[in-house]
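Re: weekly structure request thread

Next one in the queue (128 aa):
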Amino acid sequence: MTRAADAAKVCAAAFIDAFNAQDHEALAETLNYPHIRLANGRFATVEHRQSFIDRSRAGKVFLEKEGWHHTTMTSNEVIHEGPDKVHLAIRNDRCHKDGSVYNTFDTLWIVTCIEGHWGIQFRSSYLR
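Done, posted below.
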């Protein structure tokens, strides 16, 4: 694996760790901006770190309503890579406190290197 692929995978793992901890500041550090997400047929663009933190905190309510406890990344495959951009095909499981999986979905993440910082800049998820 290349240095770029390694950096992208480390970034993806850090995102999941911060997401599971609901550490919104650490989560924001795993991204590059503007950050774009495509889910449920809609694009959402977050221009700045603080805007992401605010949205992430608000999103916690929805996770709690669905009984979310943690997310497990069950696969993380490099599908394209260059010196400053890597495409990752990822499968995530959303789990209840007892570890039972209640939602499995595929997602494509584009991880970029901007001014030496590797961060997820685009996420496209097939949420169910």
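The chain has a mean pLDDT of 96. The radius of gyration is 14 Å.
Next request, please.
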